[in-house]
Amino acid sequence: MYFFIYEIIILCLIPFALAKLFYRGLIKPEQLKYLGERFAVYSKEKRSLWESRQTVWFHCVSVGETKAIYNLIEILLERYPKTYFLISHGTLTGRNTKLPNNQRIHRTYLPYDTIKASKRFLSYFQPKTGLILETELWFNLINQCRLSKIPLHLINARLSKNSLNKYLPFKNFINAGLSQLNSIYVRSKEDLVNFRDLTQANMKVMGNIKFEATPPKGVREKSNQLKNKLKITNQFVLVAGSTRPGEEKILLELVKKLNHKNLILVIVPRHPERFIEVEKIFQKQNLKIIRKSKLGDLKNPPNYILGDTMGDLYEIYGIASLAIIGGSILDHGGQNPIEPMSLNIQTAVGPSIYNFKDMVSDAEKNKAIFRFKDMVELERIIKNLLVEGKINQRILRNAQQYINKSSGSTDKIVRLINQYL
Question: 218: alpha, beta or left, given left = phi > 0 and alpha = psi -120 to 50?
């Protein structure tokens, strides 16, 4: 009965999802590319290829999840030279996020979660096993995996107290769905406790794979080249990565208040459709902001830079004196702080951390990051760094130790996949 009601709800929601997709397509036509994949419509000519392949499937809804498996995919490609890897996404930005360049990797959109589309998806690609990252749960898909005898695991799973409270009124239905998974591997003990209030499914603590998101090869050289192109020498560079609406204006006001001649602000919005919007924030105040995609031949370092190119956040973090994690200033839950930390960049995180609560809280306990509850505290952090000479070696040393001791989940996932290959 639960799944029948769920199917009706999904069918009713699809017209709204399509309307939203077509609206976005008016602004960015690329949104409408591969539209057939949203309904599990694929090339008939290639069906026989997938029938003959040994395929492991990962579902990574968007950017963060896709970045998280980069290192894992590299390991799997080397270890299993005859295996193909299907990576499904829910967003365009996820699909455009860089993965290793290999012909054995295939990207696709996950279809809308109807019974028929889920059946077609699984029947076409025939994965040996599936791994869903974090909490991207589609119950028809889960049910069809069980019926098709395809082992399905939820990995890097997280469930905050707030999310748990939202799910509890639907506990019976969610438990019915989650119980069909072969296993749930959660990030932390706190996630384990929260999941146990929701389901009796098989669960283990695996750790957070995002600790093992290693910088792309050659990224430090690219950062040095960018630094030279921007004419940066001894300036203090603030890089705000993956910023969300409202945060850019707050950061701009802070930089204006600091009024330091050697301070450079780099803004990298989380979503590319906001590049023009963010540029206008600066233009309205008669401030010149240089787009990374249009640097040209600079004579002096710019005061304000807009990171408007996709897939190179690591490269931009690499020029930072201090990285500020976007989404943490206002109530958006934050982003992954490990990216700049893994580059040996000082990292500051604001008050909103619910997307990465365990990671940020542990890093704070280990004195591996700067935390600020408001912009007054961030101002004080920046002033202290400017006075002390930019680098706090203790923070950097603690960050590397923290990352090293928190690693290990990749090996566990490799062992999990090995059961099916």
Answer: left
Neighbours of 345 (CB within 10 A): 23
The pLDDT of residue 128 is above 90: yes
Give pTM, 2 decimals: 0.77
Structure token pair of residue 259: 């009024």
Which CATH number does the domain housing residue 329 bear?
Answer: 3.40.50.2000
The edge-to-edge listing of strands for the beta sheet with 129-133 is: 105-109, 83-89, 54-59, 129-133, 152-157, 183-186, 203-205
Each residue's pLDDT tens digit, 328-373: 999 999 998 999 999 999 999 999 998 888 889 989 999 999 999 9
Note the residue count of the chain. 421
Domain that holds residue 179: 24-212+408-418
397 and 358 within one domain: yes
Two structure tokens written together for 287: 């401030």
d(CA 91, CA 114): 18
**What's CA 414's distance to the chain center, in Å?**
20
